[in-house]
Amino acid sequence: MTDATDSRVAASGDALPRYGVFIDGRECAAVEDQWYATHGPFDGEAWAEIARASAADVETAVDAADRALSGPWSQMSASERGRCLMRLADLIVERAPQLAEIEMRDNGKLATEVTGQVRYTAEYYRYYGGLADKIESSVIPTDKKGVFAYTRYEAKGVVAIITPWNSPLSLTTWKLAPALAAGCTVVVKPSEFTSASMVEFAKLFEEAGFPPGVVNVITGFGNEVGEPLVTHPKVAHIGFTGGDQAGRRIYELAARHLKTVTLELGGKSPQIVFDDADIEQAVKGVVSGIFAASGQTCLAGSRLLVHESIHDEFVERLVAFVADARLGDPLDSETRIGPIATPGQFRKIMEYIEIAKGEGAHCALGGNSRPELGAGQFVEPTIFTGVTPKMRIAQEEVFGPVLVVMPFTDEDHAVELANDTSFGLAAGIWTRDLHRTMSMVERVKAGTVWVNNYRATSYTSPFGGFKQSGIGRESGVDAIREYLDTKCVWISSDLQVANPFVRR
């Protein structure tokens, strides 16, 4: 393998900067020395080359992680691991502008959002740095005399982390921080569309004091490196964020080898607005839930359920609020809606808009692409009314700036509509009635329920879905448990061994 860093530093003229794989503490070219271009969603221009790794690189990366697991990383105390995470957090804050700039070039999200996200990832590493030495075991009172029983928690081993293109560093962090705090080592496979920021980020780990091989990054395509990583015999656990079809495939492959998984998959999350809600605040919350990040978030509130008595007024005010939202360059502070991250996703969104029109939904706003902007990878914020629950546009995840609106008659009807989907990631409830709030929180089937707000997340709070929206939880104390195995220890205090033919 050849070093890739020099080629990036020395790149000039027509040469593109290169981002290699990151294995055993250094960045290098892939074994086959193949590269592919990554393009900016706004201008469509190739701006860097990414190493196209193969199964051979997966083998090298997993071996490096396995060596680190049984070597210096396992010999560090939980407190020492925590201090590494704390130092990493400080480095993230220091390098946030650089990391954010790379990520913006790759996925086209607004500068203000990406910079804030990158800075906030530091808080996850601080939180899990503090939590690393506070996972306490239990002494178990048992019904057996003459024995002492207790539990201990041990790192699962080598963890594979596979993440999507919409928020690379943030969604990787949700898995990486608790995995490291638990004492695991990691191989990260970022999306082939947005790998550069993760490679750049990986270089901070040595500076923070992590031994080589604790964190490795494999770039390339899912069928070439993703599946070999998931099925590798030395990988104990897979953490994945992405679409439900890919999640099912990973679950199937993991099940063949009895590996554990955490899967954070898609959503078709409802925002439920009752007639007693503060309409102005609810409109802002609905806009934040679906049009932030151009709708390219798993937790997007893409189904708006509005009480029939305020339906027309709410839609009118919502359309007026969104109609003037500026589309354009994500680096421009005046831009409110950026480009769609990939050509394939752009085509998928436009196909769903045509499907909705064909199903008879009414396009109250948007519904068009904007070919004159940048490279043309823009979709207008789109709102459909006249939607029925069984339409595809009401059931399937679009992952774009497309909102469907349905009226409801009463609380029971709202619950029926909210739960009428195979997903269960999140929900928003807008009401001033405390009794109704408590009832709806209990009855809506979703992993996260926001009341009179939307999209709030924190490193302290668990996040994950019900039904087809995933398995396991990320963030908070719950997340670190996903990366730990529980061992129960029995120590006898009897001097005599009991009758071997009688079970104790």
TrEMBL record:
- Cite the PROSITE patterns for this sequence: ALDEHYDE_DEHYDR_CYS (PS00070), ALDEHYDE_DEHYDR_GLU (PS00687)
Q: Which Pfam families match?
A: Aldedh (PF00171)
Q: What UniProt keywords apply to this chain's record, in alphabetical order?
A: Oxidoreductase
Superkingdom of the source species: Bacteria
Q: Where is the active site?
A: E264
Query: Residue limits of the Aldehyde dehydrogenase domain?
Result: 36-489
Instruction: Give the matching CDD domains.
Output: ALDH_DhaS
Family of the protein in this entry: Belongs to the aldehyde dehydrogenase family.
Q: Which PANTHER family does the UniProt record give?
A: ALDEHYDE DEHYDROGENASE-RELATED (PTHR11699)
> What name has this protein been given in UniProt?
Aldehyde dehydrogenase
Q: Which organism is it from?
A: Salinicola rhizosphaerae
